[in-house]
Amino acid sequence: MNGVDQPIYYVALGDSLTEGFGVPVEDSFVQVYRSIMSQRLGRRVHVHQAGVTGETTQDIWQRLTTDNRLQEAVREAHILSLTAGGNDLLIAAREFLAKRDPQVLKAALREYSHDIGKIIEAIKQLRTDEDARDVQVRPLVMRIMNLYNPFPIFEETVYWVGRFNKEWRVYETPYIRVVDVYHAFLYRIDELIGEDMVHPNKLGYRVMAETADAVGYNGLEAPEDCDS
User: Fold this and answer.
1) DSSP secondary-structure letter at 200?
2) How many other C-beta atoms lie within 10 A of the C-beta of residue 87?
3) Distance, CA of 201 to CA of 194 (rounded, Å)
4) Terminal alpha carbon distance of the chain
5) What's the pLDDT score for residue 133?
6) Which pTM was predicted?
7) Beta-carbon neighbour count of residue 103 at 10 Å?
């Protein structure tokens, strides 16, 4: 089987933004991204949908270490997208509003930083597991969607979303890239957010997918780089 004929295996990991909360399945970020990816690369794209509404980074890490089906999908994947952190920040923000204690947000940031490190390490471990049946030699292409700010009128949210987003930068490599959803949504919140004032609408999810697509695919475009 040559590279063009071989399908791309895409793992979509994350929270409600990956699950596609608020829109029909066909309008979700994952399905729009899959369609754009397939057209861009001229190959079929098989999706393992692993988005769960409400999950924090800790929850996502726990699934990576306990869900055998997800682990096998990560081992076989060519590309993985990740949405994580929105619930961590929302939970901390609610506690902050109740207590008015800035230490709540600082503690949440420290925990978040620790948890995203565990997620990256868990994925790396799965890709190098000696017991894996078919360990991929080619590095996994990862696209990490950073956080947009649904409440830009509040100065505190601008600061803390920025702090949370900064934590991902240390993990960037030629294959692991942060997708700048924050700036894609900046000044367009009213246009891109749904009725619940938190999740994207149909257009918002499409903008997420187009922003991810613009980052590229790190060699998946080239048939000679694909497994035969």
Assistant:
1) B
2) 19
3) 4
4) 6
5) 53
6) 0.91
7) 9
* pLDDT at residue number 75: 95
* Domains defined along the chain, listed by start: 8-225 (3.40.50.1110)
Give the dihedral of Cα atoms 181, 184, 186, 191; nearest 10 deg: -110
108-112: average pLDDT? 96
Question: Which two tokens mark 32?
Answer: 């729009």
Nearest to 160 by CA among 107, 213, 217: 107
- Whether 133 and 71 have beta carbons less than 8 Å apart is answered as no
Helix (H, G, I), strand (E, B) or coil at 120: helix
What's the rounded mean pLDDT across residues 27-39? Answer: 98
φ and ψ at residue 177, rounded to 5 degrees: -125, 140
Can you tell me whether residue 164 is helix, strand or coil? helix
Place of tokens 């868990």: 122
Q: What percent of the chain has pLDDT over 90?
A: 79
Question: Can you tell me the distance from the alpha carbon of 99 to that of 171, in angstroms, rounded to the nearest whole number?
Answer: 33
Q: In what order do the strands lie in the sheet with 45-51?
A: 45-51, 8-14, 79-83, 141-145, 176-179
Q: CA-CA distance, 55 to 62, in Å (whole number)? A: 10
Residue 139's pLDDT is what?
85
* 3-class state of residue 123 by DSSP: helix
